[in-house]
Amino acid sequence: MNQPLAYVHPGAKIAKNVVIEPFTTINNNVVIGEGTWIGSNVTIMEGARIGKNCNIFSGSVISAIPQDLKYNDEDTTVVIGNNVTIRECVTINRGTTDRMKTIIGDNCLIMAYCHIAHDCIVGKNCIFSNSSTLAGHITVGDYVVLAGMTAVHQFCSIGNHAFVTGGSLVRKDVPPYVKAAREPLSYVGINSVGLRRRGYSTDKIREIQGIYRFLYQKNYNNTQACAIIEAEMEATSERDEILQFIKNSHRGIMKGYFKSN
Predict the structure, then answer these.
(1) DSSP string over the chain
(2) Domains of the chain, residue spans
(3) Which of 67, 76, 129, 141 could be bridged to 148 by S-S, CB 3.0 to 4.6 A?
(4) How far, in whole angstroms, is CA 97 from its chain's centroid?
(5) Residue 136 catalytic?
């Protein structure tokens, strides 16, 4: 249902039961799935691909060109999954030639004033609290929580189920399942509360804690710790995920609190 005071370009592909409120602009080359609600004063620019049952609140700008001087008008996109809620004044920029797209996975909640820059890939079921900011080329796993006013440096990665406390500056990669806090950002334990909410057993949580004791509490360097974990701990999907994350880290993982201070 399009309000007469909204502008929808004839080239946009809008499902029949999408609601578009007044004073919103939908540009050419936009696709919006069934059941999505677009609030007033939203701007959705070329290259947006928005899934089903999303809610986009007033003042948001989706799929603006990247804030990157290397961008040369490439045909890139923003891909937003299903059941995503984007609150007031969020900005999400489309990709560059690096990844050609910016991606937000299903069931995410992006709170007011967040910014997600070009070429970011955000997994499913993430929560970004107010005014959190992702620079370009960032990879975020599933079930990641960024508390308010978190700022993430370009090219960083954040692993599945990680929790980053409010006001944090993320300059290094944050491994899966951990809590990250303090300044400089440091390991302060695993995200046991989040893991319990998602059905992880006590034994599984203890296994993950044991892995991170080698990494952060035994005075080993990362190479030594990974070798010991691989040799002494049972192979599980969580163990292998953590080891693979560390192996693939380009910026290096954050340190433990005592090591970094």
Answers:
(1) -B-TTSEE-TT-EE-TT-EE-TT-EE-SS-EE-TT-EE-TT-EE-TTEEE-TT-EE-TT-EEEEPPS-TT------EEEE-SS-EE-TT-EEE---TTTSEEEE-TT-EE-TT-EE-TT-EE-SS-EE-TT-EE-TT-EE-TT-EE-TT-EE-TT-EE-TT-EE-TT-EE-SBB-TTEEEETTTTEEEEE-HHHHHHTT--HHHHHHHHHHHHHHHSS---HHHHHHHHHHHS---HHHHHHHHHHHH-SS-BPEEHHHH-
(2) 7-137, 195-260
(3) 129
(4) 20
(5) yes
Return the CATH number of the domain spanning residue range 195-260.
Answer: 1.20.1180.10
The residue from 68, 119, 142, 173 that is catalytic is 119
pLDDT in tens, 183-195: 999 999 999 999 9
Please give the Cα distance from 256 to 261 (Å, whole number): 9
The low-confidence residues of the chain, meaning pLDDT below 50, are 259-261
**CATH code that applies to domain 7-137:** 2.160.10.10
Is 119 labeled as catalytic in the residue annotation? yes
For this structure, is 73 an active site residue? no
Question: Out of 95, 105, 136, 159, which one is annotated catalytic?
Answer: 136
